[in-house]
C-alpha cells in the first residue's frame, strides 16, 4: 500500500494525498495520475509517459510523474 502525494505549485493538488494498493511506487503513481489527469497521460511501449503537449513527464526509470513544475510521488505505508 502506498500514499501518493503531490509536491509542487499546482493549487489543485495542494495537500493532495491518496492511498493506493499497488506492486510498486511507479504503479501507484501512474494509477493515481491517470485517475485525476487522464487527459494528460500518454504512455508509450518503452515506458515513457508524455503529457498532451508531447513532453516527457516520466522516464522508464522514474518513480515520479512531473506536473505543473512539481511531481507526483509515492511512499510505502508500513
Fold topology:
Layout: E1 2-7, E2 17-20, H1 25-37, E3 42-43, E4 49-50, E5 56-58, E6 65-67, E7 70-76
Pick out its properties.
78 residues; alpha+beta; four-stranded antiparallel beta sheet; 1 helix
Task: Explain what this protein looks like in three dimensions.
It contains one helix and seven strands, in the order ββαβββββ. The protein has 78 residues and is α+β, with helices and mostly antiparallel strands. The strands form two sheets. Strands 2-1-7-6 form a four-stranded antiparallel β-sheet, with helices on one face. A three-stranded antiparallel β-sheet has the order 3-4-5, with no helix packed on it. The relative contact order is 0.31. The model has no long low-confidence stretch (mean pLDDT 96).
H/I helix tally: 1
Total count of strands: 7
Side-by-side strand order of the widest sheet? 2-1-7-6
**Mean pLDDT across residues:** 96
Shape, per Cα inertia axes? globular
**Which regions are unreliable across 5 or more consecutive residues at pLDDT < 50?**
none
Q: What percentage of residues falls in helices of 4 or more residues? A: 10-25%
Taken as a percent bin, the fraction of beta residues is 25-35%
Rounded Rg = 12 Å
Major β-sheet, in short? 4 strands, antiparallel
Order of helices and strands: EEHEEEEE
Please provide a brief summary of the model:
This protein has one helix at residues 25-37, and strands spanning 2-7, 17-20, 42-43, 49-50, 56-58, 65-67, 70-76. It has 78 residues and is of the alpha+beta class.
Amino acid at each position: 500500500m502506498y500514499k501518493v502525494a503531490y509536491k509542487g505549485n499546482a493549487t489543485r493538488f495542494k495537500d493532495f494525498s491518496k492511498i493506493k494498493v499497488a506492486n510498486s511506487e511507479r504503479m501507484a503513481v501512474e494509477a493515481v495520475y491517470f485517475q485525476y489527469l487522464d487527459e494528460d497521460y500518454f504512455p508509450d511501449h518503452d515506458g515513457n509517459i508524455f503529457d498532451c503537449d508531447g513532453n516527457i513527464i516520466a522516464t522508464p526509470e522514474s518513480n515520479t510523474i512531473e506536473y505543473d513544475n512539481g511531481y507526483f510521488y509515492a511512499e510505502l505505508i508500513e
